[in-house]
Amino acid sequence: LRRSRVLSGIQPTAGSFHLGNYLGAVRQWVALQESHDAFFAIVDLHAITIPQDPRALREATRLAAAQLLGAGLDPERCTLFVQSHVPEHTQLAWVLNGFTGFGEAARMTQFKDKSAKQGTEGTTVGLFTYPVLQAADILLYQADEVPVGEDQRQHIELTRDVAARFNARLGDTFAVPAPRILKEAAKIYDLQDPAVKMSKSASSPRGIVWLMDEPKASGKKFRSAVTDTGTEVRYDPEGKPGVSNLLVIYSALTGIGVAELEEKFAGRLYGALKTELADVFAEWVAPFRARTEEFLKDPAELDRVLALGADKARAVATATLADVYGKVGF
Ligand code: ADP
Ligand code: NA
Predict the structure, then answer these.
(1) CB 25 within 8 A of CB 217
(2) Can you tell me which residues bind ATP (predicted)?
């Protein structure tokens, strides 16, 4: 029986992944490698849709790989690779550009949001065709499912439409993938502004917990997290977004249910929750950081793992691209 194939990507981020990336994505990947035929890409081609410093990008890509391995991805149990190491991504993306409507792409809300922030002159054409490259990432591997957060649903719909259109015009070529919306994935909010999700583009750097931060620094961030003027530690995302966010993080890192945590902190103040969570995080992050550092200290091993991943990915990608090129008339 063939295991269901999944593909997911994550952008290399300067500094390191933040806690939202881990609890919302990376942790699910580690579980998926056991149950699925899993392909995971560090999407450096997507990263250059905004300006990047070349040295910083190269470092961020290696750091992403080291962190994914540090988090528990096993190159024997999944296919972990860097997107730019597999040229078929850009080759298929160009073909798919010819099968995507301009209006269809222009409706993508992520593009509308990001381009509104950056202005027309500051927005690259790459940002516009970003979802087409994402479609290529997925369709190259004939993925059955795409594990994503809710915010990516529209891009997966576009991928499905483009795949179905290509299949209808030129014959069955692509598996039409289903989104696998990660409902179990925690959504983590900014520690300083719990109305917005924790994001690398946050306004206050104190609101983001970077996984590779010195534990002292992240402890401080937890202890100074914004809560509210109440006192009772209770899960209430509407009325107590800050406290609820801390409870969700605590629960995700320990496996203790939120209801049980409410009992544990009954009669105690917010400060107790913050201090304990700082300790819980420090204990959780220490082995992750140690494993990640080990890969960073051994560039040859990291290169070997990524070359192996690219070989495994290309074995599939070249077959799909050859089929596509033939059908297109190349
Ligand atoms: P950012 O929002 O910091 O730019 P990305 O968009 O690069 O992060 O997200 C990488 C992955 O991490 C995606 O799968 C995304 O859904 C997940 N993710 C990002 N931020 C959060 C968050 N605050 N809570 C849960 N998941 C998140
Ligand atoms: Na984002």
Answers:
(1) no
(2) 11-13, 20-21, 149-151, 188, 197-201
Q: Please work out whether the CB of residue 11 comes within 6 Å of at least one atom of ligand 1.
A: yes
Residue pair 247/233 in contact by the 8 Å Cβ criterion: yes
* Annotated catalytic residue within 200, 220, 264, 312: 200
pLDDT for 184 equals 67
Please tell me which residue in 114, 221, 240, 274 is annotated as part of the active site.
114
Q: Is 200 a catalytic residue?
A: yes
Q: What is the mean pLDDT of the chain?
A: 95
Within a 10 A sphere around the Cβ of 99, how many other Cβ atoms?
Answer: 17
Task: Give how far Cα 201 sits from Cα of 91, 114, 190, 205, 266, Å.
Answer: 30, 11, 11, 9, 35
**CA-CA distance, 257 to 264, in Å (whole number)?**
11
Q: Ligand 1 atom 19: the closest Cα is on which residue?
A: 21
Name which of 145, 117, 113, 149 is nearest 23 in CA terms.
Answer: 149
For the stretch 36-64, what's the b/e string if a residue is b when 16 or more beta carbons lie within 10 angstroms of its beta carbon? Answer: bbbbbbbbbbbbebeeeeeeebeebbbbb
Average pLDDT over residues 49-60: 96
248 Cβ closer than 6 Å to some ligand 1 atom: no
Write the single-letter amino acid at 296.
Answer: L
C-alpha R_g of the chain: 21
Q: Whose CA is nearest to atom 8 of ligand 1?
A: 199
Q: Torsion over CA of 129, 132, 136 and 142, rounded to 10 degrees?
A: 170
Among protein residues, the one whose CA lies closest to atom 22 of ligand 1: 20
Asked if the model's pLDDT at residue 13 lies above 70, the reply is: yes
197 given a catalytic annotation:
yes
pTM beyond 0.90: yes
SS3 181: strand
Confidence of residue 14 (pLDDT cuts 50, 70, 90): confident
Angle 257-149-239 (CA atoms, 0-180°, nearest 5)? 50
Beta bridge partners of 42: 10, 82
Task: Specify the DSSP class assigned to residue 151.
Answer: G
